[in-house]
Amino acid sequence: MKYLVCRKFKIALSKPLVMGVLNVTPDSFSDAGKYIKTHDAYKQALKMQAEGADIIDIGGESSRPGAEEISAGKEMDRVIPVLKKFIKKARIPVSVDTKKSEVAREALRCGASIINDITGLTFDAQMKNVIAAYKAAVILMHIKGSPRTMQNKPRYKNLIGEIRAALKNSINIAVSSGINKNSIVIDPGIGFGKTVQHNLEIIDNIAGFKKLGYPVLIGVSRKSFMGRLLKLGIKDRLIPTVACNAIAIANGANIIRVHDVKEAVWTKDIISSIINSGSF
Hints:
By secondary structure, the chain is α/β, with parallel strands linked by helices. The protein has 10 helices and 10 strands. It has a single domain (3-276), classed as Dihydropteroate synthase-like (TIM Barrel).
């Protein structure tokens, strides 16, 4: 696939893409409450766009380990005002991170181009139909369990094989529902029902996921596995995040999902330059 088709947008995949994370939640693990006010979230979206983000991903429900679910109404109350305000200035696709078709439908109606579903279309039976109807793109992520239970001693007999099989199932759901093959991205789900070792193996085996034939998104930004490895708090995880993103890109990741856009853009630009020089 040479392009990712997101409604009116057609994004070249010749270089890695940076997706900026915008959590409009009071309880996300990294920036809880920082952008809960619409104006603050809007300013952050503009900042990330100016720093070179290729996509902005807005989320209104925390998916941190142990998180409880919220209603679709509460999720929309957080997401839709920010989306409506930013979409007027957006020069890039806007993604909405949700597993609920009701939220996805309203977000797409208001101009979103991508739905980022952490359940890979397995939570809400109507989600696939909503995405297909709006000719939107979809990010299909792998999760073992739910955010509330996913880190309760996750086990796999064959980590890469099991994640690949689950992603293949999600792809089949998407394609059979009429979602354009050129509008599908897969995400092996770093930190979503994975141990520290599992996360490291995923980053080292991105080529295995690429064999499914779709762009691969990797989201390591500020995650706890780096904190456990290096005994670092969230505020000190930028350099490990940059290192993991550099390795992910070198291993074939097409999209990196990050909180720190400027540093991610620098990372992908330098890694891409090295790879394209033929020296890597």
